[in-house]
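haha ok so turns out i had the wrong file open the whole time. this is the CORRECT one, sorry everyone. sequence first:
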Amino acid sequence: MLSADSAFRSNFHVEGVLHYCVANVPGAVPRTSTFALTSATLPYALKLANNGLQAAVAKDEGLKPGVNTYAGKLTYEAVAVSQNKSTRRWMNCCDERYR
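then structure:
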């Protein structure tokens, strides 16, 4: 299999889809990659800044998977499983009774 930091054999097919995988490509075009990252993330940052965490997540379901912890509780199951910890559902963590 391909190592993410290797340019050797960086093209490969999986399920009929051609993939190109070299982790340091953004470093070759830092200005362009910065604009791309900012364009993708700024709308979320603005929603959080303008609405606060709870309201922003309530209005945009796309934000919920990005919340890994809240009020000292793990809210994202994959993170909890990887750490052998229990998890609380996001909305339960927002409830004052669970703080």
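Strands lie at 11-14, 17-20, 69-70, 73-74.
again sry for the mixup
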